[in-house]
Amino acid sequence: MKSSEDSGAGVMSIGTLAARFGLATHVLRHWESKGLLHPGRDAGGRRRYGADDLTRVAIILLSKEAGLGLDTIRSLSATVDRATRHKILRPEAEELRSRIAAARASLELIEGGLNCEYEDVTQCPNYRRLVAEQAVPRVPAHGRA
């Protein structure tokens, strides 16, 4: 028989909440120290987490999975202003687009090696094209070498 603490509908201890997400309790304490969680306390001073905390932990995990850092997550959770949210998320989206482009290029190189019929992968036309593209001199965005 489950206690009301484990039911998911009531108040949970730090251990119960951490276990629900497969986290160590020190992770929740760290997030609290960063201002991401604000658990209530019982008469003995023990942390008590409710449904809102459960939702917040899920949001933190999803945000981290998307590549956002804890400071960015805290900034996002502290704003309800759309313009501020956009100001925070635009550079994150651009960084993610860059990482996706780099991952696609890496996958193209790897798949080229897998599909190459030559013994020496450096003889494959696709591989040579990718190498030639990489060897092109690049001018930094600010115009200086």
TrEMBL record:
UniProt xrefs under SMART domains: HTH_MERR
InterPro entries xref list: DNA-bd_dom_put_sf (IPR009061), MerR-type_HTH_dom (IPR000551), MerR_fam (IPR047057)
Protein name: MerR family transcriptional regulator
Keywords, ordered alphabetically: DNA-binding
Keyword DNA-binding in record: yes
Keyword DNA-binding set for record: yes
Residues annotated as domain HTH merR-type: 11-79
Coiled-coil boundaries: none
Gene3D superfamilies: 1.10.1660.10
